[in-house]
Design a protein that fits this description.
Blueprint (H helix, E strand, L loop, with lengths): L9 E4 L5 H15 L6 H14 L3 E3 L2 E2 L2 E4 L6 E11 L9 E10 L3 H15 L2 H8 L4 H9 L4
Parallel strand pairs: 1-5, 3-6, 4-6
Antiparallel strand pairs: 2-3, 5-6
Pfam families: PTS_EIIA_2 (PF00359)
Protein name: PTS system, fructose subfamily, IIA component
Length: 150
């Protein structure tokens, strides 16, 4: 799982934002720091379409928006730790402080589903969540994510 994390795609997000703004910030982060997206608008639209099917707010302060798309070269993960929590229409009704955006090519179904499942399992650990939410900055967050099981 760790192989999908890239330091340049992990950020802290300051200020008050909507769910859509946070998703756009993370898509922009991918565009600015990688060559993985062939069409960022298409990817963003796919993420929003997936959200309309059902919220990817998995609860416990975490959202795991994800989508497969023709315009992605490989699986990508972007992470945003929100300094101000947002409503993500989570299953438990709690606001979200951590957004982990996952994108994958259409042909990577098995690998993509496995990654999403592994991430959900890792974030169920209360100790991991507490450490993430208490991270003071990007470097500390990177260190915590590096501790996640491979």
């Amino acid at each position: 799982m760790l192989k999908y994390f890239n330091n340049k795609l992990i950020t802290t997000i300051e200020g008050k934002h909507s769910k859509e703004e946070v998703l756009q910030i993370l898509v922009n982060l991918i565009r600015e720091n990688s060559d993985i997206l062939d069409n960022e608008t298409d990817f963003y639209d796919n993420i929003l379409a997936r959200e309309k099917v059902g919220s990817t707010g998995i609860g416990m302060g975490i959202a795991l928006p994800h989508a497969r798309c023709e315009n992605i070269k490989q699986i990508v993960v972007a992470v945003g730790l929100l300094k101000e929590s947002i409503d993500f229409n989570s299953l438990d009704g709690e606001n979200v402080k951590l957004v982990v955006l996952v994108g994958a090519p259409k042909k990577s179904t098995k690998e993509y589903l496995s990654l999403v499942s592994d991430l959900m399992r890792a974030f169920r650990n209360p100790k991991t969540r507490t450490s993430i939410f208490e991270a003071g900055d990007k470097q500390e967050l990177i260190g915590i994510l590096a501790e996640l099981k491979k």
